[in-house]
Amino acid sequence: MSKSIKGTALVTGASSGIGATYAKRLARRGYDLLLVARDQQRLDDLAKALAQENGVRVEVLRADLTREADLALIEQRLRDDEAISLLVNNAGIALNGTLAEADPAKVGALINLNILALTRLSSVAAASFGAREQGAIVNVASVVALIPEMFNAVYSASKAYVLSLSQTMQSELGPRGVRVQAVLPGVTRTEIWERSGIDEASLPVEMIMEVGDMVDAALAGFDQGEVVTIPSLPDADDWARFVGARAKLGPNLSHSRPAERYRITG
Ligand SMILES: NC(=O)C1=CN([C@@H]2O[C@H](COP(=O)(O)OP(=O)(O)OC[C@H]3O[C@@H](n4cnc5c(N)ncnc54)[C@H](OP(=O)(O)O)[C@@H]3O)[C@@H](O)[C@H]2O)C=CC1
Ligand SMILES: N[C@@H](C=O)C(=O)O
């Protein structure tokens, strides 16, 4: 049994898609792993293969992160296990359809997983990694954080939340030696489409990225020290200009008097 010098990566949603691919890549990079999701069999199979192929330690923590008791156990492990050096907050679900036709139970489940569980795990990691002045947190958002009108309202809003949370976390934790990265994938070939009732075949093929390419690009962005990584974006300057436009708004977003055009005369 190894005890990796890279430490242990805790990956949520590791039983399929992006999370399973992160697990494979991180095992190859020499991380020990804690794999979190609900499907015990898939996690066990992946754990066995990764331990055999890479000689790292892989442990399965079966958890439904929308259940308080399960989430509390993962938080506890994150708090207590000083070997954990990387949290990949990846577990997420999507929805299909308009807000007017949304099923309240599905909306609640999405918010509990995509927002609440991610926030609580981020908070524990922020405290633990911050105290040790090392570690990294990767939050999987989505490009729909930037183009919400293109997709389901609740899902897009949840991903805008993840982006916003990550940016503040980086400003709080960066000075303490803890890295935070938000990853914004575009359409990626995983089970999320089928699971949320969307026919992948209806999507333009030139928009779909293979999951291995997506995760490799996200890890390249991580290695380059990016706070926000958009795997599809050809020109990094486009994001820099977006950030620049936001910075330009900054000094004018809070003044003692309304802007001239809103002053009622007469
Ligand atoms: N694929 C895409 O086009 C894009 C995906 N993303 C994001 O990437 C992330 C991963 O999604 P992706 O790999 O595509 O989709 P998948 O459906 O393949 O993976 C989702 C993962 O989350 C786990 N999960 C779902 N519900 C729960 C739960 N209640 N508790 C714990 N784990 C749960 C699933 O495992 P199990 O069922 O075993 O619990 C699975 O491992 C998500 O956050 C998604 O929003 C972002 C942009 C684009
Ligand atoms: N995969 C989408 C949702 O299912 C997205 O985030 O683009």
Automatic annotation (TrEMBL):
SUPFAM superfamilies: NAD(P)-binding Rossmann-fold domains. It catalyses: L-allo-threonine + NADP(+) = aminoacetone + CO2 + NADPH; 3-hydroxypropanoate + NADP(+) = 3-oxopropanoate + NADPH + H(+). One of its GO terms (molecular function) is 3-hydroxypropionate dehydrogenase (NADP+) activity. InterPro entries: KR_dom (IPR057326), NAD(P)-bd_dom_sf (IPR036291), Sc_DH/Rdtase_CS (IPR020904), SDR_fam (IPR002347). Gene3D superfamilies: NAD(P)-binding Rossmann-like Domain. Its EC number is 1.1.1.298, 1.1.1.381. Keywords: Oxidoreductase. This is NADP-dependent 3-hydroxy acid dehydrogenase YdfG.
